[in-house]
Amino acid sequence: MGSDKVILATNGVHATQILESHPIDIIISDWNMPEMNGEELLYHVRNNHQLKDIPFIMMTSNGGRDFVITAIQNGVSHFVVKPFKAEKLEAAVNKSWNSASKRQSTRHSALPPHKALIYSGRTLINGQITNISRTGMQLQAPYSEALKLFQTTKFDVTFEHDTGLTLLNLAALHGTIVRIEVNDERVKDCLFGVRFDLEAFSETTQVSVDALLDFLDKQAPDEVNNDH
C-alpha cells in the first residue's frame, strides 16, 4: 500500500505516546482496546492541533448505525467493519490519503469581510483575499511597482466585527509572490498569487491560519467518505 514503515501500538495509550514521538501519516485503529479505546483515541487526535489532520481509519466488529454515526461525528476518515478482506482496508487507506491531500490543497473563496495589508519595504497596500488554502492565497490589490514577482512579502489580515472572527489575528503571513495578473485595467487592480513560506510562520500565525480554514470548512463542509 505504499508504506515502508508500520508502527504497532498495543492500545490507545501506547498510540498517543507513539504519536507524540513519531511523524505518523495515517492511523488504523480498532474500536475495542484496553486503557483507551478507539473512540477515545479518535477524540484525542481530532482535538490535538498537531495531530488533527491525520487520516484515521476505525475498525470494529460492530457495524450498527449508532457506532457509525458516532465515529463520523467524532471525525473518522473511514469506517471498516470486521471481517473484511485486505482489498477493503487497502481501499480505505488510499481514499484517506487522497482525501487528506485534497484537504491540503482545497482553496476557500468568499471570505468574510476583512482587510488584508500588504507590506513591501516602506510601502503599505490594502487588498482583499479572493481565495486561501493551507499552502497559499490569492489577493486582489491595486497595482504597485513595490510588489514584484518572486518577492518575499509580509501580510496582515483583520476581520470586521460582525464576521465572528474578530479575535482571529492573521499577523505576519510570510509568502512569495509567484503570479501577477491584471484583474481590471480600468482601476488597475491586480491578482497576486502567493505561496506561503510556512517555515517563517510563528506558531501563533499557523494556529490562526488553521482556525480560519477550519471555520471556512464548517461553512462548506467536505463530504464524509464512508461506505456505510
UniProtKB/TrEMBL annotation:
The modification 4-aspartylphosphate is found at residue 30. One of its GO terms (molecular function) is cyclic-di-GMP binding. Keywords: Phosphoprotein. The keyword Ligase does not apply. Signal peptide: none annotated. InterPro entries: Bact_response_regulator, CheY-like_superfamily, PilZ_domain, Sig_transdc_resp-reg_receiver. Residues 1-97 form the Response regulatory domain. Coiled coil: none annotated. It holds the Pfam family PilZ. GO terms for biological process: phosphorelay signal transduction system. PANTHER family: RESPONSE REGULATORY DOMAIN-CONTAINING PROTEIN, STRESS RESPONSE REGULATOR PROTEIN 1. This is Response regulatory domain-containing protein. It comes from Pseudoalteromonas peptidolytica F12-50-A1.
